[in-house]
Amino acid sequence: MNWLEFSYLLPLFIIGCGAVILMLLSPVERLSMENFSVLTFVFLTMALIGNLYYFGELRTSFPLANIFSNMIIDDSYAVYFDSILLSGGVVTSLIGTHYFQTKRKFKKEFFSLFLFSLFGMMLLVHANELLTAFIGLEIASLSLYVMIGFQKFDTRRVEASYQYLVLGSISGVFFLLGTALIYAGTGTTMLGEIGYAVDAQVGKDTSLVLIGGTFILMTFLFKISAFPFHNWTLDVYDGSPLPVTAFMAATFKVAIFGFILRIMLVDLDPIREMWDKLFVFIIIATLMYGSFMAVIQKSLKRMLAASSIVHTGYLLIAFVSIGVAGESASSSIIYYLVAYFLSAMGAFGLISYITSNDQLRVTYEDFRGFAHIHPYMAAMLSIFMLSLAGLPGTIGFIGKFYIFTGAIEAGYTVLAVVGVTATFVSIYYYFKLIALMYFYPYSDLENVPPLRGITPITIGFIAIAVIAGGLGNTFIAYFPGVDFLIDNARLSYMSLFIK
Amino acid sequence: MASSLFSYFVVAMILLSIGLVGVFSRKNIFVIYMSIELMLSAINLIFVTLSNYYHSMSAQIIAMMVIAIAAAEAALFLSLIVVLYRRKKTLDSDMYKALAQKETL
After folding, report:
1. B15: domain CATH number?
2. pLDDT digits over A5-33, tens only?
3. Could you give the CA distance from residue A114 to residue A100 in angstroms, rounded to a whole number?
4. What is the pLDDT averaged over residues A143-171?
5. Nearest one of A139, A298, A152 to A234, comparing CA atoms
6. pLDDT digits (tens, 9 = 90+) for B6-39
7. Is residue B10 included in any domain, yes or no?
């Protein structure tokens, strides 16, 4: 056993073993839910530390090649995405602490499923082979289906779980069909070898790889809820428990982009222009539909779900401009993923904290005059809304700035215009909440838990990170800001092409 | 052999289309589940055919893996069908409308 190579995969092993250990410990009655959230947090922190040890180092390797036979890759790119995913897990476990203890019917197995889901996502980012990626995707998805429907006394949860399960299985079938067609066209499912085979076939008949790639893209468009496959998003996000919604919206999307960028940048690069025209239509439709759905919602949770469709549209703008401005576009995607992750995690987490005592659905009207009773929570919620809308001074602005400049550089001015218009529209539905909180005298929202415990502290830190990411290194020296994240995103992009 | 490859592909695609139509047109959630399993089996058929065509075992291994994943999915599907039936006393997916949003529009 090569211990250095083993240490590259240590975060993956810690999360996987942690999930199994938690599952074995769950029948022990002496351990309470609180012990389990502490244990989950310990596993996640250990994995995150093991991961950050290799952060910012340019390298590509196939660890333990005699066991995994090059099916698992470990490069700076995977390390960067692992860091986002693991911090997503840490933040979810901290935010959920209060929610899982106050809501009924959460059992201890929930934490095991949570770690399994994270393990699947990390496997997806590390995958260097199509079937490995599918297994990772299915581990993550199957655990998520159970996490959504965990409170089975509530019909809405179970129905959301069922809807996601049926549609997710169909999209999984399409992924497998794409794998089969790519295997038929190239004779391999290893990512690097597919690239060589496609290179050799350019100019001849690449239709099998093209159709297979389209099927795989369909799966990913489904999972990130882009236009033709967006219908499940509102219902499933609305029906699931809020911390799980936050986990799905912020973390799962990161993992999906982690894999799709790898396959598109490295293997399907020669034939990527075929999809560009298609993507222009998909992006415009995604942005328009998401904005429309977000404007008409009364429930805050559904509004955030609809706005996550809009953010998918922004990410796809950068995705399409990769063809011309490869390095800056892909690092802007990675940066925007961090920005959206922080803002969405904060917003969903704070709303889950506010509503954890009784209500299931939170409408805009519930927040009327909220700022006069809970000024700090209102301030934090305002920061997240500003960042989601992309106002200067927050991390969301920098993310949008890079995406739109990248689109203009690549010659997609139309997409940049549509994106900016969608941003203007988004001001309406984000600022409606801020206006309701501050400009009205009284509040109806009762049973708000006091500002105490680990959850509000975490959300406060996220709010500070949102501001710090927007200000950059000019104000706070030696603090990881914009430049640090962008530089590392560039580094992880470069590591994809070391052979 | 090429023509036999083609005919196996045609059979697999017909099975896949039957499964897809079944998912979209049937109301019974048990039939929906069976349609998804049919689609997975169709893809397994493609993999096994390709394994014979390329004279390589890797596609057969992939088919085995797909069967294992389909089994995991089956466990989840069946348990969810039981939960849904206990709550609603019906298998008709039109009756599941707790998430339908009529008041928003």
Report:
1. 1.10.287.3510
2. 888 888 899 999 999 999 998 888 888 87
3. 12
4. 88
5. A298
6. 899 999 999 999 999 999 898 888 899 999 999 9
7. yes
Q: How many domains does chain B have?
A: 1
Q: Helix count (H) and strand count (E) of chain A?
A: 22, 2
User: How many angstroms separate the CA atoms of A126 and A141, rounded?
Assistant: 16
pLDDT band for position B45 (cuts 50, 70, 90): very high
3-state SS, residue A112:
helix
Residue B43 in any domain: the answer is: yes
What lies within 8 Å, CB to CB, of A65 at 6+ separation is none
Q: Residue B47 sits in which domain range?
A: 2-95
Task: Out of B73, B98, B103, name the one closest to residue A159 (CB).
Answer: B98
- Buried-exposed string A471-488: b where 16+ CB fall within 10 A, e elsewhere: bbeeeeeeeebbeebbeb
Is ipTM over 0.90? Answer: yes
Q: Which chain A residue has the Cα nearest residue B96?
A: A159
pTM, to two decimals: 0.91
- Kindly list the residues of chain A whose beta carbon comes within 8 Å of any beta carbon in chain B: 131, 134-135, 138, 142, 145-146, 149, 152, 155-156, 158-163, 165-166, 169-170, 172-173, 176-177, 179-180, 183-184, 187, 189, 234-235, 238-239, 296-299, 302
**Chain A / chain B CB contacts < 8 angstroms:** 96
| Helix axis angle, A76-102 to A33-52, nearest 10° | 170
A363: which residues sit within 8 A by CB, 6+ positions away? A298, A299, A300
Distance CA(A349)–CA(A408), nearest Å, equals: 34
Helix, strand, or coil (residue A31):
coil
Query: What's the helix, strand, coil split of chain A in %, to 5?
Result: 80, 0, 20
- Cβ pair B82, A161 in contact under 8 A: no
A286-B93-A241 Cα angle (round to 5)? 60
Cβ contact A498:A57 at 8 Å: no
Q: Is position B13 within any domain? A: yes
CB contact under 8 A, A180 and B65: no
- Convert the pLDDT of each residue in A425-466 to its tens digit: 999 988 988 888 888 877 666 666 677 777 788 888 888 888
Domain membership of residue B101 (yes or no) is no
Q: At what angle do helices A130-148 and A253-262 cross, to 10 degrees?
A: 170
Gap between the Cα atoms of A486 and A483, Å rounded: 5
Residue A68: how many other CB atoms lie within 10 Å: 16
pLDDT for res A143: 93
Q: Which amino acid is at A46?
A: M
pLDDT beyond 60 at A351: yes
Mean pLDDT of chain A: 84
